[in-house]
From TrEMBL:
Residues 14-82 form the HTH merR-type domain. The keyword DNA-binding applies. It comes from the Bacteria. This is Transcriptional regulator. The keyword Lyase does not apply.
Amino acid sequence: MPDLGRLDDQDYPAFTTGQAAELLGVQIAFLRSLDTAAVVRPERSAGGHRRYSRRQLEQAARLRELFDQGHTLQAAARIAGLEDELSAAHEEIGALRAELDRRTDDNTA
């Protein structure tokens, strides 16, 4: 019996190139260009076909939006990467503040 629980996994490569293109409303060639440029690297099936995860589809959609705004593919990839780094930094700062608040509360109790 197939392991359907993996479908909830954001990184499970469940979508073919055709399915991914249809979901995103893009041409298959756009997805191939992302792979060629090494900005979205899909898994490969045993037969060598590209398989995309939900996380990769989200990344491709972000890149397409930036591309549509007039950025080159490389610039779009850089912008998306910097946005991800900034988001991670904000999360880390939030966690550190929470830890500092916890320690402050422990010391005043």
